[in-house]
Amino acid sequence: MVVRTRAQQQAAVREVLLSMLPPGAPEQFRKLFPPTRWACEFNAALTVPFFHWLVGPSQVIEVEVNGVKQKSGVLIKKCRYLENSGCVGMCVNMCKIPTQSFFTDEFGLPLTMNPNFEDMSCEMIYGQVPPPLEEDPASQQPCYANLCSISTPSAPVCPKLQT
Predict the structure, then answer these.
(1) Dihedral sign, Cα of residue 133, residue 134, residue 138, residue 143
(2) Which end of the chain is more exposed for a tag (fewer CB within 10 A), N or C?
(3) Model confidence, pTM
(4) Quick one: CA dihedral 135, 136, 137, 143, positive or negative?
């Protein structure tokens, strides 16, 4: 992370995610799961048991997407990735943005992730188009000065969110 720009970090994660899939998987996913309420709720339900190993305990929650309440949200109670990295930049550049982009751009199923940097929880909302990075509150977070070994405590925003 230290030697890579924000864009390089995100591209590296995208390549790893794509490398884990068989050829043609994104196209098949788009056919099987067009961006409907059912697909969003189904993917939320799958996220809880299948990503527990990576992010920790989570649960499906009701969220509002385009004015409609649906059970397409996932609340990660305390994200293991964020807690173990202790780094806002790693959360945003190596999880939030690449995962959102992967589902939204590759699979055609919009996903927004809202990390809570106070309690280290995270809310995933299937069906919600993520905001542009420059409008995303996560892009304006300061470092965890006491947790992140590469933090700049005096900086108002985590330096890895600006490069």
Answers:
(1) positive
(2) C
(3) 0.86
(4) negative
- Biggest CA–CA distance in the chain, Å, is 48
Residue 160 CB-half CA count within 13 A: 24
When computed from its CA atoms, the radius of gyration of the chain, rounded to whole angstroms, is 16
Q: Which helix (H) or strand (E) holds 62?
A: strand 58-65
Q: Are 144 and 77 in contact (CB under 8 A)?
A: no
Residue range(s) defining the domain that contains residue 87: 6-161
Residue 143, token pair as written in the block = 């470092």
Q: What is the distance, to the nearest Å, from the Cα of residue 100 to the centroid of all Cα atoms in its chain? A: 5
d(Cα 124, Cα 56) in Å, to the nearest integer? 13
- Give the Cα-Cα-Cα angle 45, 92, 86 (nearest 5 degrees): 100
- Kindly state the average pLDDT of the residues 104-131: 95
Neighbour-count burial of 139, counting CB atoms closer than 10 A to its CB (0-12 exposed, 13-18 middle, 19+ buried): buried
Number of domains in the chain: 1
For residue 145, is it within any domain? yes
Length of the chain: 163
Give the count of alpha carbons within 13 A of 57, CB side only.
Answer: 2
Q: 95 with 112: CB under 8 angstroms? A: no
Residue 1 belongs to some domain of the structure: no
